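Teaching assistant's notes for section 4

Start the section by putting this record on the projector. Ask students to predict, before seeing the second block, whether DUF3291 domain-containing protein will look compact or extended. Collect guesses on the board.
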Amino acid sequence: MEYHLAQANIALFKAPLTDPVMKEFVDFLEPVNRFAEESKGFIWRLKDEQGRSASYIESPFKDDMMAVNISVREDLPSFKDFVYGSVHSYFLRNKKKWFDLKGTSLFVLWWLPKGELPTLEMAKEKLDALEANGASPSAFTLREFFDPTGKKIDV
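Reveal the predicted structure now:
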């Protein structure tokens, strides 16, 4: 069976998306998401009903200030290339401008059978499992990474 790498991350915005402090972030949401979709290894990302960023979706986490991002990539190299080797890295390095770093900030990875897509509920379950049990083959991080067979590997 073939697998793809799914990821979910959540964080708290510092202000509503309409606030001037969020302008740079909001201005680049669509261009960065478009770049993500055009980058090597991209499979899918969560969008709202209008095709906009998942940041506009009402989350199951019951917090209007919660930013939710879920995506699927072919593999770990394509995930890391986009996150750390593209324009996305600017927003990662400068996240304190737009996100409350003292608030909830969670990240999880997991393998999905090729052809399956994650849901918000699935992402919440994976985040909850990681928080409750630590890294495992079914919910892990880049610090404690597992390949699709469940073997722990260094990345």
